[in-house]
Specification:
heterodimer; A: about 400 residues; RNA Polymerase Alpha Subunit, Chain A, domain 2; four-stranded antiparallel sheet; 8 helices; globular; B: about 170 residues; alpha+beta; Gyrase A, domain 2; two-stranded antiparallel ribbon; about 40% helix; flat; nucleus (chain B); DNA-directed RNA polymerase (chain B)
């Protein structure tokens, strides 16, 4: 079933919040978030930052201490941004999730019908596995292992057929564009090969000489990079904090003088409050609060989608912890964080007596339900796994 | 029977560490890398086994207000996040995690509070706070991304116009 409903309006079966209250609860939610953040910040400040340092006017922090993002660069393959007033453990968790735990599509099983090319079957299959596929709308697909089918079906896989034969005198190259996607997918995006080059060819697979042929059925499945790197959504994620090394988290190796031998990134240092003065005493209480991210996509997801999905996946993981710890640990068959399990198999979390995620926080359903409507995707808690009834 | 009970089977209640040999015996991962769920191959080290608890909770009987949480099929992503975040709350006396063995996809989180709140509640609250922080981050990110994309596209358009006046 495709998701035709607008994401910001709650499904009719969900108890909270009623549609007319959506706006109000969003506002209430924002203030709840603010107070939580403020509360947390007060604690952090008392633990960590001496006032003399943090009261110095920071020209880059216009938000006055709330978590915020500044962009340095944004295009179709790259998102280069700074997260300010954040903390190291959450920034690092986000980085790790974006690297390894966002669901994407990749060819997982290949049926070889014919291969008379010079490359061995497994060689070609490996290359096929590494071809980036569009992952927009993977949430419409089930994980194959959670599907009731035998092997694979339309609910959990996309079939791409490769059938090429060289008949001419010239050497023929087979590209990702030659993969024919089967009909019956849940949406028109998932599983298409990523093609971004000006010639519209996509990744190169094999070369064929006259008379050679290749015929393969490739079954693309949903997965995460923790299982195999072919499911990684990001080509690379740059991550840095404290470029001037004021916190001494780095201990530079040197022959004579580290200042002479190591390059300095002046731009970043300027973005991070400037270089330390010569006689500046070491601040033992300082903690990193500004993080440079540089997310580059393989092509399956837009860079902003990688970040959005990363945040969502991490939130789901944490929601899974909350769910299990509050449920008294009886959820042996229900808790797989990060959405790595199909909720439809066990009736979904919505069937739990505590209505998923709404109760623990004083009935403030919007904390979990409505906050992310602007993100364009489903909210982590609004959609199936922890919210109301299943919506796909 | 959950794992910590078995670790104490020899009666030595003085150790909360699982013996490595026991870990190997317990973890099918040590014997085979995959298991079949129906016709589907499932990699042990990544995906949850429905027969095992995602989080096993064990009270430490020797130290008050102390709990050891064993997270199965989770790694440093969650371990570091929760244990470090907990340090920021005044009622936490101790919080740390460890991965007993790198080949087994699990970590143990040990949390001691001052008694005003149980470790279980502390972890729950900590997770909820992180989720809220991430909501703020998400909203800021979306706004800024849209803004930056508009600027970038405008610049590209202007450059294209400059190079090609007609």
């Amino acid at each position: 079933m495709s998701r035709s409903q607008p994401h910001h309006s709650p499904a009719p079966s969900r108890p909270h919040p009623p549609p007319s209250d959506a706006h109000r609860s969003l506002c209430a939610n924002t203030s709840a978030i603010r107070s939580t953040v403020k509360h947390l910040r007060d604690q952090t400040v008392s633990l960590a930052k001496p006032r003399s340092r943090s009261t110095r006017m920071d020209p880059y922090d216009v938000e006055g201490g709330a978590i915020n993002v500044r962009f340095l660069h944004a295009d179709s393959v790259r998102a280069h941004f700074i997260i300010q007033n954040f903390n190291l453990e959450t920034a690092n968790a986000l980085r790790r999730v974006m690297l390894a735990e966002i669901p994407t599509m990749a060819i997982d099983v290949v049926e070889v019908m014919d291969n008379t090319s010079v490359l061995a079957d497994e060689f070609v299959c490996h290359r096929l596995g590494l071809i980036p596929l569009i992952a927009k709308g993977v949430e419409d697909l089930l994980y194959s292992r959670d599907c009731d089918c035998e092997g694979y079906c339309e609910q959990c896989a996309v079939v791409l057929t490769l059938n090429a034969k060289c008949t001419g005198r010239d050497i023929m190259k087979v590209f990702a564009r030659d993969l024919v996607v089967s009909a019956g997918r849940p949406n028109e995006d998932v599983g298409n090969p990523v093609i971004v080059d000006p010639e519209r060819q996509g990744s190169s697979i094999v070369k064929l000489r006259k008379g050679q042929a290749i015929h393969m059925r490739c079954i693309a499945k949903k997965g995460i990079a923790k299982e195999h790197a072919k499911w990684a959504p990001s080509a690379a994620i740059g991550f840095e904090y404290d470029p001037a090394n004021k916190l001494h988290h780095l201990d530079y190796w040197y022959e004579d003088d580290p200042k002479e031998e190591w390059p300095v990134d002046h731009d970043r240092i300027n973005l991070d409050g400037g270089a330390p003065t010569e006689d500046e005493a070491f601040n033992y209480d300082a903690v990193p609060s500004r993080f440079f991210f540089d997310v580059e996509t393989v092509g399956g997801l837009d860079p902003d989608q990688i970040v959005a999905e990363g945040i969502k996946t991490l939130q789901r993981k944490l929601a899974g912890v909350i769910q299990q710890l509050q449920g008294g640990g009886d959820g042996a068959d229900g808790a797989d964080f990060g959405g790595a399990q199909s909720p439809t198999l066990n009736g979904g979390y919505g069937a739990a007596p505590d209505q998923g995620y709404t109760t623990p926080y004083g009935g403030n359903a919007s904390v979990w339900g409505g906050a992310n409507a602007a993100a364009g995707g489903t909210t982590p808690y609004g959609a199936t796994p922890y919210g109301g009834g299943p919506s796909w | 029977m959950n794992a910590p009970d078995r670790w104490l089977r020899d009666g030595s209640a003085t150790s909360w560490q699982p013996p490595i040999a026991q870990l190997i015996e317990d973890n099918p991962n040590a014997r085979q890398r995959y298991r079949m769920r129906g016709n589907h191959l499932v990699r042990h080290s990544v995906y949850s086994n429905r027969n095992e608890e995602k989080i096993e909770v064990k009270e430490d009987t020797r130290v008050p207000s102390t709990t050891i949480f064993t997270f199965n099929k989770e790694d440093h992503t969650l371990g570091n996040l929760i244990s470090q975040r907990l340090h920021k709350y005044p009622y936490i006396l101790f919080s740390a995690y460890k991965v007993p063995h790198p080949l087994f996809a699990m970590f143990e989180l040990r949390v001691t509070t001052d008694g005003s709140i149980t470790p279980r509640e502390a972890v729950t609250k900590c997770c909820a706070d992180v989720v809220r922080d991430l909501d703020v981050l998400q909203q800021s990110f979306t706004t800024e991304w849209l803004g930056k994309r508009i600027v970038t596209e405008g610049e590209a358009e202007r450059q294209a116009r400059d190079q090609n006046p007609n």
